[in-house]
Amino acid sequence: MSTQPRFRFFLYTFHFLHLITCTYCYPDQKSGPQLPYACRPPHHSSYPFCNSSLPTKTRALSLVSLLTLEEKIQQLSNNASAVPRLGIPPYEWWSESLHGIASNGPGVSFNGTVKAATSFPQVILTAAAFNRSLWAAVASAIAVEAKAMHRVGQAGLTFWAPNINIFRDPRWGRGQETPGEDPMVASAYAIEYVRAFQGRHYRSSARRDRYNYGLQRRVLSDDYDADDRLMLSACCKHFTAYDLEKWGQFTRYNFNAVVRYITSDCDAVATIYEDQKYTRTPEDAVAAALKAGTDINCGTYMLRHMMSAIEQGKVSEEDIDRALINLFSVQIRLGLFDGEPARNQFRELGPEDVCTLENRKLSLEAARQGIVLLKNEQKFLPLDVHAISSLAVIGPLANSTNLGFCCFVGVPCNPRSIVEGLQEYVNNIYHAAGCPDIPCNSTNDFAEALYVAKQAEYVIIVAGLDLSQETEDHDRYSLLLPGHQMALVTAVAAVSRKPLIFVLTGGGPIDVSFAVGDPCIGSIIWIGSWEMGGKALSEMIFGHYNPGGRLPMTWYPESFTSIPMSDMNMRADPSRNYPGRTYRFYLGERIYGFGYGLSYTSFTYKLLSAPTKLSLKESINGRRWSNMLHQRSHNLEYVHVDEVLDCSSLKFQVQISITNNGDIYGSEVVLLFSKALKNFKGSPERQLIGFERIHILPHGIAETSFQVDPCEHLSFADEHGNRILPTGDHIIISENIEHVVSIET
Description:
Layout: H1 56-65, H2 69-73, E1 79-80, E2 91-92, H3 123-127, H4 132-151, E3 158-159, H5 183-198, E4 204-205, E5 217-218, E6 233-234, E7 246-247, E8 250-251, H6 268-274, H7 282-291, H8 301-311, H9 317-333, H10 357-370, E9 372-376, E10 391-394, H11 418-422, E11 429-432, H12 446-455, E12 458-464, H13 485-495, E13 500-505, H14 513-516, E14 521-528, H15 533-541, H16 582-585, E15 603-609, E16 613-615, H17 622-631, E17 638-640, E18 652-660, E19 666-676, E20 687-696, E21 701-708, H18 710-713, E22 716-717, E23 723-726, E24 728-734, E25 737-744
Parallel strand pairs: 3-6, 10-11, 10-12, 12-13, 13-14, 16-25
Antiparallel strand pairs: 1-2, 4-5, 7-8, 9-14, 15-18, 17-23, 18-21, 19-20, 19-24, 22-23, 24-25
Helix pairs in contact: 1-9, 4-5, 4-10, 6-7, 7-8, 10-15, 12-13
Domain Fibronectin type III-like: 668-737
Signal peptide: 1-25
Protein name: Beta-D-xylosidase 6
């Protein structure tokens, strides 16, 4: 997509719209009524764009050449119009699939044969598993259900997911939709999601993932390898600089984050003129957006103003053609112009492929791997289920099947509350809400909660966040528990017979420092949000699953809220008492750090192999090397990455063994960081360069290795935006391992 012109304004979301395609299409005869489809014989099947033997671009060019200007403009909306004279039906581009098929977009409906779809844990919780194969399995399962719903006319082929924003500020209402605050993790998650969701192969297979816990994978048939066809189309959204909803006088519609290239989310093109006042007329707005690389406008602004923009000479028909070629190319790759859908290889999919037992087990596995144990004083957990006489479960979400899901959710298959999950293990359970709801603005229900807590042998309290606190168009102002929740937790802990089990819901970080040091609170568990949270939580509490999740974001103290959300700087600036953002640059105190998480067992790390020295000179042209030394007075503290001609020659392996010291099976997330010893202005405190989740038998040993590319993993962007590779010593860090690798000049 073009990066010209360079704009100094912010469209609140960024969609890679050249990756997406239509929604309303057709089920086959076995699944429901036949809906219109393109290239239908005998009158509309002879066009070149219907010829599947031709290259994709040739077919797209042919289709665009047959459209009138008015017809072209009508394709620039998410609700694209039909072209009856060519036999092309209308298309709805907007469907959602963030962590399961969602009903937010008009392309998805649960008012048909399919009444529900598998709802996976919110993305921030799945990301906490730090497991690439799990991420891919989840995306693949969502894709199968999407395709099955498409076959019965209840979903499209274009899905606006994943959300790849960095969780930059802990108050952001949509942080729970993201994979967290680390750019490498966000990138890895997006890669796994998009590849699996778009599918390069489809066949049911019982292929186990590399750690053998039996995740099912689904892929496109082998004949798809020879071309560029897609099963579905994913759309990476909110590309950058979007992590503010409403904060003070700023909203996502008027805040200027100073970014570059732009594509459109819903109503975003209108925002250019109506909210940001960047342009003087609506015609200037649609021209600016289109020429910046926008392929489609979610909304009607382009439809209403594009013709007058052309008449005023601000847009050419060729500008529109560029966008349409991108759009129709993806439609062609999805098979929308291949004629009779009954011949499509996905014709066997139907309602029976939605909410399958296999997918619900996968959803449970994602929650198991993501849940994070934050505190476990004196190994208070797991509890012995055979030794428990009674259990009290307290909290406004304890008996709810809606554990704070964000906006992108559909109808879950079989939602179960935390109380229901615990009832599978303990017969004698007491329940009290304690608060009327999550805002907890009243203490009227405290007495019942305290009474219940006194009756039971063990007490679990469920507190945290839901949509009233964090969602699209709503940020938090405080990092503390809402309303009187903190007082409820403290009061219940004080009267409980044994230390309290404190369960936190929601996606955003919470300042629970009051509970971290309280001896009356034995354990703290973060479960995020998920339709079957009770099952995974119960398994963990009673030792049927050993927790291994790690936090994908920093948990800041309440004092961080003094920092304006509108300050986009990542790096710390001591001159103005600015502490920085995310674990890479933040210098302040933290409740829990990025990558933190406990297990019921312990692990010992041992470095098996890694180099101690790398020679930079061998990777740089001799004449360029001499010039660099001369220009920098032979004091070569760093090189620009683009000056290194052969980065591959610098790559090396780091091999680590991990020993499970306990009597219980466990999974360990191995995180590998790097840090330059030289103090450069703006250099990160540390940065993640690799991660792997490994599963280890009791007293067993496992090995893992990471390939380190110094040009990528040991470099960083300086204050001018240049990617530099410091010379001298770098520390490779993983748990207790600190190994120095020196880049010599």
